Amino acid sequence: MLSPVVAVIDIGSNSIKVLVAARREDGCLEALKTQTIDARISTGISRAEPQLSEEGMARGLAAIVDLLAVAKPFAPTHTVLVATSAVRDAINGHDFQSRVLAATGNPIRILTGDEEADLIGRGLTCDPALKHLRDFYVFDLGGGSLECLAFRDRRIEQGLSLRLGCVRMTEAFIKNPAAPLESAECAALALHVRDTLKNSGFRFNLPGAEAVFTGGTMTSVRLMNGALHGVGLEDTPAVVLAATLHALLDEVGPKNLAERRKMPGMPGARADVFPAALVTAVTLAEFGLFERFHHSLYNLRWGLAAQALD
Fold this sequence. Notes:
Order of helices and strands: EEEHEHHEHEEEHHEHEHHHEH
Low-confidence stretches: none
Mean pLDDT: 94
CATH superfamily of the largest domain: Exopolyphosphatase. Domain 2
CATH topology of the largest domain: Nucleotidyltransferase, domain 5
CATH class of the largest domain: Alpha Beta
Protein backbone atom coordinates (compact mmCIF):
# COMPACT_ATOMS: atom_id res chain seq x y z
CA MET A 1 0.00 0.00 0.00
CA LEU A 2 1.34 3.43 -0.98
CA SER A 3 1.17 6.71 0.91
CA PRO A 4 -0.25 9.94 -0.51
CA VAL A 5 1.38 11.02 -3.76
CA VAL A 6 3.72 13.99 -4.19
CA ALA A 7 4.79 15.67 -7.44
CA VAL A 8 8.09 17.55 -7.44
CA ILE A 9 9.17 19.82 -10.29
CA ASP A 10 12.84 20.79 -10.22
CA ILE A 11 13.48 23.93 -12.30
CA GLY A 12 17.16 23.60 -13.07
CA SER A 13 19.48 25.75 -15.13
CA ASN A 14 19.68 23.28 -18.01
CA SER A 15 16.63 21.05 -17.60
CA ILE A 16 13.30 20.94 -15.81
CA LYS A 17 12.28 17.61 -14.29
CA VAL A 18 9.30 16.05 -12.58
CA LEU A 19 9.21 13.21 -10.07
CA VAL A 20 5.88 11.75 -8.97
CA ALA A 21 6.47 9.56 -5.93
CA ALA A 22 4.87 7.86 -2.95
CA ARG A 23 6.19 6.06 0.09
CA ARG A 24 5.77 2.29 0.36
CA GLU A 25 4.83 0.47 3.57
CA ASP A 26 8.52 -0.37 4.11
CA GLY A 27 9.29 3.35 4.21
CA CYS A 28 11.11 3.49 0.86
CA LEU A 29 10.13 5.99 -1.82
CA GLU A 30 8.76 4.67 -5.08
CA ALA A 31 8.84 6.65 -8.32
CA LEU A 32 5.52 6.54 -10.14
CA LYS A 33 6.64 8.81 -12.99
CA THR A 34 9.71 10.78 -14.02
CA GLN A 35 10.26 13.03 -17.02
CA THR A 36 12.82 15.62 -18.11
CA ILE A 37 12.52 18.56 -20.51
CA ASP A 38 15.65 20.40 -21.63
CA ALA A 39 14.53 24.03 -21.39
CA ARG A 40 17.87 25.84 -20.84
CA ILE A 41 16.41 28.81 -18.96
CA SER A 42 19.91 29.81 -17.82
CA THR A 43 21.27 31.46 -20.98
CA GLY A 44 23.34 34.43 -19.83
CA ILE A 45 23.96 33.00 -16.35
CA SER A 46 27.68 33.86 -16.43
CA ARG A 47 27.10 37.64 -16.73
CA ALA A 48 27.95 39.98 -13.87
CA GLU A 49 24.20 40.56 -13.45
CA PRO A 50 22.52 37.37 -14.74
CA GLN A 51 19.08 37.89 -16.21
CA LEU A 52 16.60 35.34 -17.52
CA SER A 53 15.73 36.04 -21.14
CA GLU A 54 12.17 36.27 -22.41
CA GLU A 55 12.80 33.17 -24.53
CA GLY A 56 14.23 31.26 -21.58
CA MET A 57 11.31 32.15 -19.33
CA ALA A 58 8.85 31.15 -22.05
CA ARG A 59 10.58 27.78 -22.49
CA GLY A 60 10.63 27.30 -18.74
CA LEU A 61 6.95 28.13 -18.28
CA ALA A 62 5.95 25.82 -21.16
CA ALA A 63 7.99 22.97 -19.65
CA ILE A 64 6.43 23.47 -16.22
CA VAL A 65 2.90 23.45 -17.69
CA ASP A 66 3.69 20.23 -19.59
CA LEU A 67 5.16 18.52 -16.51
CA LEU A 68 2.23 19.53 -14.32
CA ALA A 69 0.01 17.83 -16.91
CA VAL A 70 2.20 14.71 -16.71
CA ALA A 71 1.73 14.61 -12.93
CA LYS A 72 -2.02 15.36 -12.89
CA PRO A 73 -3.31 11.80 -13.60
CA PHE A 74 -1.60 10.61 -10.40
CA ALA A 75 -3.70 13.06 -8.33
CA PRO A 76 -0.84 14.30 -6.15
CA THR A 77 -1.80 15.54 -2.71
CA HIS A 78 1.26 17.82 -2.72
CA THR A 79 2.82 19.58 -5.69
CA VAL A 80 6.18 21.22 -5.05
CA LEU A 81 7.99 23.53 -7.50
CA VAL A 82 11.55 24.55 -6.72
CA ALA A 83 14.14 26.56 -8.61
CA THR A 84 17.91 26.46 -8.23
CA SER A 85 20.93 28.38 -9.52
CA ALA A 86 19.58 30.05 -12.67
CA VAL A 87 16.51 31.57 -11.01
CA ARG A 88 18.31 32.11 -7.71
CA ASP A 89 21.06 34.20 -9.33
CA ALA A 90 18.97 36.06 -11.90
CA ILE A 91 18.06 39.66 -11.11
CA ASN A 92 14.59 38.96 -12.57
CA GLY A 93 14.10 35.56 -10.94
CA HIS A 94 11.10 36.83 -8.97
CA ASP A 95 9.48 37.93 -12.24
CA PHE A 96 9.67 34.33 -13.43
CA GLN A 97 8.16 33.20 -10.12
CA SER A 98 5.25 35.57 -10.65
CA ARG A 99 4.64 34.39 -14.22
CA VAL A 100 4.53 30.74 -13.19
CA LEU A 101 2.20 31.48 -10.28
CA ALA A 102 -0.15 33.46 -12.52
CA ALA A 103 -0.22 30.77 -15.22
CA THR A 104 -0.41 27.65 -13.05
CA GLY A 105 -1.45 28.70 -9.56
CA ASN A 106 1.67 27.05 -8.17
CA PRO A 107 4.28 29.04 -6.25
CA ILE A 108 7.98 28.40 -6.87
CA ARG A 109 10.28 27.99 -3.90
CA ILE A 110 13.74 29.36 -4.74
CA LEU A 111 16.26 27.25 -2.87
CA THR A 112 19.39 28.70 -1.34
CA GLY A 113 22.64 26.94 -2.16
CA ASP A 114 22.69 25.38 1.33
CA GLU A 115 19.09 24.16 1.00
CA GLU A 116 19.84 22.66 -2.40
CA ALA A 117 22.89 20.81 -1.09
CA ASP A 118 21.03 19.51 1.97
CA LEU A 119 18.09 18.25 -0.09
CA ILE A 120 20.40 16.55 -2.59
CA GLY A 121 22.01 14.80 0.35
CA ARG A 122 18.64 13.70 1.66
CA GLY A 123 17.74 12.35 -1.76
CA LEU A 124 20.97 10.34 -1.99
CA THR A 125 20.18 8.52 1.23
CA CYS A 126 17.03 7.17 -0.48
CA ASP A 127 19.13 5.28 -3.06
CA PRO A 128 19.12 1.56 -2.12
CA ALA A 129 22.27 1.01 -4.20
CA LEU A 130 24.23 3.29 -1.86
CA LYS A 131 23.14 1.77 1.44
CA HIS A 132 26.57 0.21 1.95
CA LEU A 133 28.33 3.60 1.93
CA ARG A 134 28.98 5.21 5.33
CA ASP A 135 31.57 7.94 4.68
CA PHE A 136 31.31 9.41 1.19
CA TYR A 137 31.28 12.55 -0.93
CA VAL A 138 28.45 13.68 -3.20
CA PHE A 139 28.81 16.01 -6.18
CA ASP A 140 25.82 17.23 -8.17
CA LEU A 141 26.73 19.08 -11.35
CA GLY A 142 23.98 21.17 -12.92
CA GLY A 143 23.87 23.96 -15.43
CA GLY A 144 24.47 26.73 -12.92
CA SER A 145 26.23 25.19 -9.95
CA LEU A 146 28.13 22.27 -8.48
CA GLU A 147 26.83 21.07 -5.12
CA CYS A 148 29.47 19.44 -2.89
CA LEU A 149 28.65 17.36 0.18
CA ALA A 150 30.57 15.17 2.60
CA PHE A 151 28.80 12.44 4.59
CA ARG A 152 30.27 10.94 7.73
CA ASP A 153 28.39 7.90 8.99
CA ARG A 154 25.63 8.79 6.49
CA ARG A 155 25.09 12.25 7.99
CA ILE A 156 25.95 15.46 6.16
CA GLU A 157 29.11 16.95 7.63
CA GLN A 158 29.74 19.55 4.91
CA GLY A 159 27.65 21.04 2.15
CA LEU A 160 28.13 23.98 -0.16
CA SER A 161 27.18 25.24 -3.61
CA LEU A 162 29.84 26.43 -6.07
CA ARG A 163 29.17 28.39 -9.26
CA LEU A 164 30.73 25.75 -11.50
CA GLY A 165 27.70 24.60 -13.51
CA CYS A 166 28.33 23.46 -17.08
CA VAL A 167 26.22 26.19 -18.73
CA ARG A 168 27.90 28.86 -16.62
CA MET A 169 31.39 27.46 -17.38
CA THR A 170 30.66 27.14 -21.10
CA GLU A 171 29.60 30.78 -21.31
CA ALA A 172 32.56 31.95 -19.25
CA PHE A 173 35.40 29.96 -20.83
CA ILE A 174 34.41 28.60 -24.25
CA LYS A 175 34.37 31.23 -26.95
CA ASN A 176 32.48 29.16 -29.51
CA PRO A 177 30.62 26.11 -28.13
CA ALA A 178 29.96 24.93 -31.71
CA ALA A 179 33.70 24.61 -32.41
CA PRO A 180 36.17 22.01 -31.12
CA LEU A 181 37.38 22.66 -27.59
CA GLU A 182 40.63 24.65 -27.66
CA SER A 183 43.46 23.50 -25.39
CA ALA A 184 43.83 26.99 -23.89
CA GLU A 185 40.11 27.08 -23.04
CA CYS A 186 40.31 23.64 -21.47
CA ALA A 187 43.35 24.65 -19.39
CA ALA A 188 41.75 27.92 -18.22
CA LEU A 189 38.52 26.17 -17.23
CA ALA A 190 40.36 23.41 -15.38
CA LEU A 191 42.46 25.96 -13.50
CA HIS A 192 39.32 27.87 -12.51
CA VAL A 193 37.68 24.68 -11.20
CA ARG A 194 40.80 23.75 -9.21
CA ASP A 195 41.13 27.25 -7.75
CA THR A 196 37.45 27.37 -6.84
CA LEU A 197 37.63 24.01 -5.08
CA LYS A 198 40.86 24.98 -3.33
CA ASN A 199 39.46 28.28 -2.05
CA SER A 200 35.96 27.02 -1.24
CA GLY A 201 36.76 25.70 2.22
CA PHE A 202 35.39 22.27 1.30
CA ARG A 203 37.53 19.66 3.05
CA PHE A 204 38.47 16.41 1.35
CA ASN A 205 39.20 14.79 4.71
CA LEU A 206 37.40 11.43 4.67
CA PRO A 207 40.14 8.80 4.32
CA GLY A 208 39.35 6.26 1.61
CA ALA A 209 35.84 7.63 1.10
CA GLU A 210 33.96 6.89 -2.12
CA ALA A 211 32.54 9.64 -4.32
CA VAL A 212 29.00 9.81 -5.71
CA PHE A 213 28.14 11.92 -8.77
CA THR A 214 24.63 12.98 -9.73
CA GLY A 215 23.25 15.15 -12.52
CA GLY A 216 22.90 15.02 -16.27
CA THR A 217 26.62 14.82 -17.08
CA MET A 218 27.12 11.34 -15.65
CA THR A 219 23.75 10.24 -17.01
CA SER A 220 24.98 11.31 -20.46
CA VAL A 221 28.23 9.36 -19.97
CA ARG A 222 26.26 6.21 -19.14
CA LEU A 223 23.84 6.75 -22.05
CA MET A 224 26.79 6.99 -24.43
CA ASN A 225 28.37 3.90 -22.93
CA GLY A 226 25.08 2.04 -23.26
CA ALA A 227 24.63 3.10 -26.89
CA LEU A 228 28.00 1.59 -27.77
CA HIS A 229 26.86 -1.74 -26.32
CA GLY A 230 23.23 -1.60 -27.44
CA VAL A 231 21.74 -1.35 -23.94
CA GLY A 232 19.75 1.24 -22.00
CA LEU A 233 20.85 3.35 -19.07
CA GLU A 234 19.60 0.89 -16.48
CA ASP A 235 21.84 -1.85 -17.93
CA THR A 236 25.07 0.16 -17.81
CA PRO A 237 27.47 0.08 -14.83
CA ALA A 238 26.57 2.63 -12.17
CA VAL A 239 30.27 3.09 -11.36
CA VAL A 240 32.15 5.34 -13.80
CA LEU A 241 35.94 5.37 -13.76
CA ALA A 242 37.82 8.67 -13.82
CA ALA A 243 39.88 7.15 -16.63
CA THR A 244 36.66 6.76 -18.65
CA LEU A 245 35.94 10.47 -18.23
CA HIS A 246 39.48 11.34 -19.34
CA ALA A 247 39.14 9.17 -22.44
CA LEU A 248 35.73 10.61 -23.30
CA LEU A 249 37.05 14.16 -22.97
CA ASP A 250 39.88 13.27 -25.35
CA GLU A 251 37.28 11.96 -27.80
CA VAL A 252 34.73 14.76 -27.45
CA GLY A 253 37.10 17.72 -27.26
CA PRO A 254 38.32 17.69 -30.90
CA LYS A 255 34.78 17.40 -32.33
CA ASN A 256 32.58 20.30 -33.36
CA LEU A 257 28.99 20.54 -32.17
CA ALA A 258 27.50 18.77 -35.19
CA GLU A 259 29.93 15.89 -34.76
CA ARG A 260 29.24 15.66 -31.02
CA ARG A 261 25.50 15.41 -31.63
CA LYS A 262 26.09 12.42 -33.91
CA MET A 263 27.93 10.48 -31.22
CA PRO A 264 25.87 7.43 -30.15
CA GLY A 265 23.86 8.16 -27.02
CA MET A 266 24.79 11.85 -26.84
CA PRO A 267 21.78 13.89 -25.66
CA GLY A 268 21.56 16.54 -28.37
CA ALA A 269 20.46 19.33 -26.04
CA ARG A 270 23.57 18.87 -23.88
CA ALA A 271 26.15 18.54 -26.64
CA ASP A 272 27.19 22.20 -26.48
CA VAL A 273 27.91 22.18 -22.73
CA PHE A 274 29.18 18.61 -22.49
CA PRO A 275 32.89 19.44 -23.00
CA ALA A 276 32.84 21.95 -20.10
CA ALA A 277 30.99 19.43 -17.94
CA LEU A 278 33.62 16.77 -18.66
CA VAL A 279 36.48 19.16 -17.90
CA THR A 280 34.82 19.97 -14.57
CA ALA A 281 34.27 16.30 -13.70
CA VAL A 282 37.80 15.30 -14.70
CA THR A 283 39.32 18.17 -12.71
CA LEU A 284 37.19 17.27 -9.69
CA ALA A 285 38.42 13.67 -9.89
CA GLU A 286 42.02 14.83 -10.05
CA PHE A 287 41.66 17.36 -7.23
CA GLY A 288 39.86 14.94 -4.91
CA LEU A 289 42.03 11.96 -5.91
CA PHE A 290 38.98 9.96 -6.95
CA GLU A 291 39.54 6.98 -9.22
CA ARG A 292 35.83 6.41 -9.75
CA PHE A 293 32.38 7.85 -9.15
CA HIS A 294 29.18 6.05 -8.17
CA HIS A 295 26.37 7.47 -10.27
CA SER A 296 22.96 7.96 -8.67
CA LEU A 297 19.66 9.27 -9.98
CA TYR A 298 18.44 9.98 -6.44
CA ASN A 299 19.16 13.67 -6.10
CA LEU A 300 17.26 16.88 -5.36
CA ARG A 301 13.80 15.73 -6.43
CA TRP A 302 14.01 12.67 -4.18
CA GLY A 303 15.04 14.77 -1.21
CA LEU A 304 12.11 17.12 -1.80
CA ALA A 305 9.71 14.20 -2.19
CA ALA A 306 10.91 12.69 1.09
CA GLN A 307 10.52 16.05 2.80
CA ALA A 308 6.98 16.58 1.45
CA LEU A 309 5.82 13.07 2.35
CA ASP A 310 7.17 13.42 5.87
